[in-house]
Amino acid sequence: MPEQPRSRRQTRAAILGHLLQSGGMFRPPLARAVRLSEASLSRILFDLKAEGLIEEVRRPAPYFGGPTALVSLDSSVRLAAIELTGERLTVGVGGLSGELHYTERLPLPKSPTVKSVSRLFHQTLQSLQDWTRQHRVQLSQIGVSVPGLGRLSELVNPIIPCDVKRVRGMLGEMFADVPVAITNSVVAHATFHRCHTEDYPFAGPHLFVFVGQGVAGAWMDDPIEADALQPVELGHMVFGDGGPPCRCGHHGCVEAYTSLPALAGLLGVGEPELLQLGDEWVNAISISARVRQELRRRLFRLGLAIGNTLNVKPCAGVAISGWPSVLAEADRKALIDGIDACVMGGRKFAQVSLAFVPPSSGNDPNAALAFAACCLACRGGMPVSSAEAA
Ligand SMILES: [Zn+2]
After folding, report:
1. CA distances from 254 to 159, 189, 334 (A)
2. Predicted local confidence at residue 1, as pLDDT
3. What CATH topology corresponds to 78-188+364-389?
4. In a 10 Å sphere around its CB, with 0-12 CB exposed, 13-18 middle and 19+ buried, how is residue 250 labelled?
5. How many A from CA of 248 to the centre of ligand 1?
6. Among 342, 294, 316, which residue's Cα sits nearest to residue 220?
7. For the whole prediction, is pTM greater than 0.85?
8. Residues, CB-to-ion distance under 5 Å, ligand 1
9. Ligand 1 centre from 113 Cα, in Å?
10. CA–centroid distance, residue 83 to ligand 1 (Å)
11. What's the 352 CA to ligand 1 centre distance in angstroms?
């Protein structure tokens, strides 16, 4: 099948995306990766360099007579990252390779409301504005990560009361010239892993599952396209009537069995204490044989939810992050068994490969920063209006 012709934006996005995921490449492998002749690549790199998006640094040649100029993303580009979690709102300014130059964390009130969360956003954006003015920093992109954000929850967020439209309005007023992208936190975490987790197992389309304070998934596709990252609410898959209440308002969701707050009762610790420990509870709390058995039952259920998701939309890879990835192999097996028991024809027949990646919760605003970098790459570093036209 002939390749679809690519627009200028897509070609630039492919180059920036490869540099983002690799951290830097020599010209010949980069040209091969983005399917361009070295001459064409050279022309585009010339533009990207003039626009301050990439730089070339001298490196020892990888082989005798090989290239010596490593192409990487320009280290002076600045992005803002804003990440809302169950406990706090974090803002940061960083670069394309994920380093942070400024971070501020503001705790959420005990019972957050739309009003108090909006106020916190306003306070945070003011701090960001002060810092960027003081340091004469021009932002190239703002990335915002909000838990539970989806197609239906732009206005009513069932997870954390947050009026995204209002936040968007504040950003538009205070940072009028800066492109803004707001996403579900699972998409931000998936982006973070794809760019920064060493030996991340999948390069092609796959399902990313995050198990922490909530349970959610994201479809990960070719990062050139803006809609390549789609959240999927597999955590709110309901298994029959009854079951424990879920924060979404339903009963018996898989999240109500396997999220960190849902585990607190089972493990016999307070919810705040467990959230404080985060994914590390696996190493910090010893559990009885009875609790382990129930934990495995819940992991099996999570496996069923993942398997059901794969039945609806088949996919060759699943990456699982969060506390299950810290578990011993014997415990993880329950989750894998759940997937096996559910995927049509079984996991092997369906050729689904499974990988556990380290947890990334508690590292805010790194996920939002990775998402901001991905958005900049995705529009090919072009202004939003011309990227849409290209
Ligand atoms: Zn639910």
Report:
1. 15, 20, 15
2. 38
3. Nucleotidyltransferase; domain 5 (3.30.420)
4. middle
5. 4
6. 316
7. yes
8. 236, 246, 248, 250, 253
9. 19
10. 22
11. 26
Tokens of 5: 């012709």
Write the DSSP assignment of 291-351 as a string of letters. HHHHHHHHHHHHHHHHHHHHHHS--SEEEEEEGGGGS-HHHHHHHHHHHHTTSTTHHHHTT
Domain limits, the chain? 8-73, 78-188+364-389, 199-357
Q: What's the CATH number for 199-357?
A: 3.30.420.40
159 alpha carbon – ligand 1 mean position (Å)? 9
pLDDT 10s digits, 353-386: 999 999 888 899 999 999 999 999 999 999 887 6
Smallest CA-to-CA distance from 71 within 81, 83, 57 is with 57
Domain covering 8-73 in this structure, CATH number: 1.10.10.10
Q: What's the CA-to-centroid distance between 117 and ligand 1, angstroms? A: 22
Token pair 């001459």 is found at: 39
Q: How far is the C-alpha of 22 from the C-alpha of 374, rounded, in Å? A: 13
CA distances 280 to 17, 210, 334, 388, Å, are 32, 15, 20, 43
